[in-house]
Amino acid sequence: MKFSPFNFQAPLGAGGITLMAFSYLQFAVPHGKGLIKLSDIPWASLTTMQTSLYAPLVGIMLVFTIINLLSIVVFSKDLIQWLATKQDYKEFMSGPPSRITGICVPIASLSMTMNVILAPLAFFVPKLHDNIQGMMLPGLIMFGFLLLMLLKLEFTMLKSWLSQPLDVTKSNFVWLLDVFAFGLVNLTGAGIASMASNREIASIAAVATLLALSIGSFLLVIKLTYLIYQQLKSSELPDNQIQPAYFLVVPITCLYAISYYKIMLYLQTWFSFDIKIASFFFITFSYVIAIGWAIFTAYLLTDYFKNYFYKSEYFPTQWAMV
Fold it and tell me: Which regions span the lipid bilayer (predicted)?
């Protein structure tokens, strides 16, 4: 199979699934300060219902953590070889706007893997969990690298769009992939800012994350407004292969809200800010939007699911539903 940056959606999806399972256990199981670990689950005292719920979640975390880590290694190797073949990169970047933004998927996937290492992997590896603060500086360096690469790619795309005629009327919701990548990079930086016990590391991560949040939020508002406007003008939905991309708005909304929330945790830790009202607003409002958009999109794509989805061949946009 010919390599494409869209291949990185596989480790991205696996990482998303394992983080969902981890997040549930983090908030459902009482444990000490910080992130939950496997030994925090009191298996002997759990009810049958709790055991039947927690055990599959732990199994899901283990399986998809392994899938994420193995696939990110394989695809990173493929990416290096692909970039070395400059002609393939130039050909990819000469495509329409919605395809070009796919170059940001590897950045998003690597950011997801960083979160997998700091949370689900540490859940299973006691030494990593106990030394999580020792991971903050390497994590900050990697976060900075990913942010710089993402900014470079964003400006490269902007330069390309400004230097040649751009038919944005052909854009679709895949055009939001760079916004999605900013969301995952934001989540990584905000996580470091809220977790680091070293004030300098936390502050650097917070400032860089606020920069990325500002850029990503601006792009989200501009692009989403334009895409909705174009869709309202259109008399029909895009091609069947493109329709699942509507679901991209759901994870984007959640990623940005959680990132803002974690930045507020940083402000609470180091500046004693009262974040109760603001955090409630961000989390509640974002999840209302995400759930509402998911229901609306599922209704909008009724014909897609009934008449096309089950008999269709794989297409990268289907990862948006994951």
Answer: 12-29, 53-80, 100-123, 135-153, 173-195, 201-224, 245-265, 277-301
What pLDDT, on the 0 to 100 scale, is given for residue 315? 72
Cα–Cα distance between 175 and 99 in angstroms, integer?
7
φ/ψ region of 43 (left if φ > 0, alpha if ψ in -120 to 50, else beta) reads: alpha
How far the first Cα of the chain sits from its last, in Å, is 22
Burial (Cβ within 10 Å: 0-12, 13-18, ≥19) of residue 167: exposed
Q: Which amino acid is at 31?
A: H
- Give the model's pLDDT for residue 168: 64
Rounded CA separation 128/135 (Å): 8
**What are the extents of the domains in the chain?**
5-321
Distance CA(68)–CA(143), nearest Å, equals: 18
Rounded to whole angstroms, the Cα distance separating 111 from 11 reads 11
The model's pTM: 0.92
Instruction: Output DSSP code: residue 119.
Output: I
* Measured distance CA(214)–CA(151) in Å, rounded: 12
46: which 2 tokens?
């759990």
Name the residue with tokens 């960083």: 114
Closest CA to 103 of 14, 184, 173, 9: 9
CATH class of the domain whose range is 5-321: mainly alpha
Chain segment 34-50, per-residue pLDDT in tens: 899 999 999 999 999 99
